[in-house]
């Protein structure tokens, strides 16, 4: 009997776990789901005879390592900083590893040892990063085959709220890790535009966002996603002049979030005792408020907008001008903001999220300029069975199944899914789960 260890039973795990449990009887698999939350595990595995619950502290080797040792393959959906614990165990016990997160510097340093051990540590195997890499490289390789010269590559992806569940002025609700939304863009961003490197600091990330038309959704705003330049060599596009990876949001969100940043409310380093503070008094303290005008007037002046500007009503809707007491404890402004947003941006159980991804690639073929647009828009079924969970979890589950059943020979090293031996079979199976791209050429 083969054993699969899945570390993490959070929001993005439900499709992954159910996919592997569906294939478990035929393949005689045992699926161990490990997490610190017993209820989260029970909710995902139900009472499947092919599943085993393991309530553990992932940071403790004594909890974690025996499970890795038992496994034939390890999947990590843990927060990114915890993958390294499992990676070290996998190297020690010679186990293949799959994660959905970006390759960290620590993980990158393991590449030589992982290759020498003949192991696959497949990272960036979820949605973005993941499906974006696979679909982009499928297109890029097809253009290379006809001797096309790629001059521009832009890739956009966003986890959004579906239009039928969109009922707040921010046009946003949480469909994945909420803290990641708070910290989005913290490290700034880099990309290539017209042959020049553009660097965007965090403070400017959501300022004057450009827009892109996405089929059936109209115009969406986007902001650059991390360091696009690190993928230039991996994508093998030597003649490219523009190379951008970006995150999609509704335009109102970007305007409102820019205000949140400018008011210092995403600060993670300003630890303070919340006793005696309300949302309004915290905002006053953070922005140097004097009692000469209303708080709304003060904030409007600080943001250099009119008092009746939409962004002021968006902040008001969040409750930032209210005299509601903060939850007691020592925390940062970012912690206070997260606590507020967990309530305000919570999806109801019947509400649907949506994932939109679009690639825009321009290339020259026989002296002709061609633009190819490839688009995927998928809606979730409800809060639990979300589009985000589906698009993050299924690529991982499919790869794990194909490795265990020897449909795929695992490539070695600390890698991402940019090779045809991985993306062809995985993308083919994703179409059977209605994860499909449509292409337009002009």
Strand order, sheet with most strands = 3-2-1-4-5-6-17
Structural class comes to alpha/beta
Net shape: globular
CATH architectural group of the domain at 2-126 and 387-435? 3-Layer(aba) Sandwich
Strand content: 15-25%
> N- to C-terminal separation?
52 Å
Mean pLDDT: 95
Helix content: 25-40%
CATH topology of the domain at 2-126 and 387-435: Rossmann fold
Question: What's the number of extended β-strand segments?
Answer: 18
Instruction: Please count the helical segments.
Output: 16
Low-confidence stretches: none
The biggest sheet amounts to:
7 strands, parallel
- In CATH, the homologous superfamily of the domain at 2-126 and 387-435 goes by the name NAD(P)-binding Rossmann-like Domain
What this model shows, in words?
This protein is 36% helix and 24% strand. It has 442 residues and is α/β, with parallel strands linked by helices. The protein has a domain of 174 residues: NAD(P)-binding Rossmann-like Domain (Rossmann fold), CATH 3.40.50.720. α2 links the parallel β2 and β3. α1 runs parallel beside α15, α3 crosses α4 and α15 crosses α16. The protein is globular, with a radius of gyration of 23 Å. The model has no long low-confidence stretch (mean pLDDT 95).
């Amino acid at each position: 009997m083969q054993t699969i260890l899945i570390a993490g039973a959070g929001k993005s795990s439900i499709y992954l776990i159910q996919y592997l449990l569906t294939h478990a009887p035929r393949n005689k698999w045992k699926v161990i789901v490990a997490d610190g939350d017993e209820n989260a595990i029970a909710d995902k595995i139900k009472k499947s005879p092919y599943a085993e619950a393991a309530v553990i502290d992932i940071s403790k080797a004594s909890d974690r390592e025996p499970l890795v040792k038992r496994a034939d393959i390890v999947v990590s959906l843990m927060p990114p900083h915890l993958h390294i614990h499992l990676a070290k165990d996998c190297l020690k016990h010679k186990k293949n590893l799959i994660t959905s997160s970006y390759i960290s510097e620590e993980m990158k340093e393991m590449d030589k040892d992982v290759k020498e051990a003949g192991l696959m540590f497949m990272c960036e195997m979820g949605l973005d990063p993941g499906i974006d890499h696979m679909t982009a490289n499928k297109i890029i390789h097809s253009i290379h085959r006809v001797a096309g010269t790629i001059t521009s590559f832009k890739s956009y992806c966003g986890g959004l709220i579906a239009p039928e569940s969109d009922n707040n002025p921010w046009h946003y609700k949480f469909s994945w890790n909420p803290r990641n939304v708070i910290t989005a863009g913290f490290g700034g961003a880099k990309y290539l535009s017209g042959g020049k490197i553009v660097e965007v600091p965090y403070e400017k990330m959501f300022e004057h966002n450009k827009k892109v038309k996405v089929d059936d959704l109209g115009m969406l705003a986007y902001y650059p996603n991390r360091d696009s330049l690190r993928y230039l060599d991996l994508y093998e596009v030597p003649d490219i002049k523009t190379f951008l990876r970006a995150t999609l949001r509704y335009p109102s969100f970007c305007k409102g979030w820019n205000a949140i940043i400018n008011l210092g409310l995403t600060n993670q380093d300003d630890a303070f005792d919340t006793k005696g503070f309300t949302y309004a008094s915290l905002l006053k303290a953070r922005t140097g408020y004097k009692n000469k005008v209303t708080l709304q007037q003060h904030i409007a002046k600080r943001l250099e907008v009119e008092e009746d500007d939409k962004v002021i009503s968006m902040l008001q809707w969040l409750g930032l001008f209210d005299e509601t007491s903060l939850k007691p404890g020592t925390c940062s402004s970012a912690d206070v903001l997260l606590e507020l947003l967990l309530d305000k941006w919570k999806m109801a159980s019947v509400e649907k999220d949506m994932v939109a991804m679009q690639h825009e690639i321009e290339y020259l073929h026989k002296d002709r300029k061609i633009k190819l647009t490839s688009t995927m828009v998928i809606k979730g079924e409800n809060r639990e069975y979300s589009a985000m969970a589906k698009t993050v979890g299924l690529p991982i589950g499919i790869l794990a199944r194909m490795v265990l059943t020897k449909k795929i020979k695992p490539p070695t090293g600390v890698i991402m899914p940019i090779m045809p031996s991985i993306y062809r079979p995985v993308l083919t199976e994703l179409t059977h789960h209605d994860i499909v791209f449509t292409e337009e050429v002009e």
